[in-house]
Amino acid sequence: MRGIILSILLGALAGYLAGKIMKGGGFGFWINLLVGIVGGFLGGKVLGWLGIAWGSTLVGQLVTAVIGAVLLLWIISLFKKK
């Protein structure tokens, strides 16, 4: 149970940080959570393909999730009309 709560908080924080990096603000708890979770998965895959691994530390997981979330937001912005 503690791991699930930590994953939710980590995902929300990663989504929030990615929102700050990409747009200057977050998107609310639920969207930040979704972006952070998907970003964590995407970041893990992309960094794995590049041979980069920071281990399973909390900081490493957060950095990986933020990188993935920023990448996800960038991909979404490519399809968004201005």
Structure, described:
This protein has helices at residues 2-23, 29-49, 58-79. The protein has 82 residues and is mainly α. The chain is 79% helix and 0% strand. The chain is built from three helices and no strands. The relative contact order is 0.19. The mean pLDDT is 84. Helix 2 (29-49) crosses helix 3 (58-79). The protein is globular. The protein has one domain (2-79).
Largest sheet: none
Mean pLDDT: 84
Question: Structural class, judged by helices and strands?
Answer: mainly alpha
Instruction: Compute the CA-based radius of gyration.
Output: 12 Å
Bin the strand percentage.
Answer: under 5%
Number of strands: 0
Q: What form results from the Cα inertia axes?
A: globular
As an assembly, this protein is: single chain
Low-confidence stretches: none
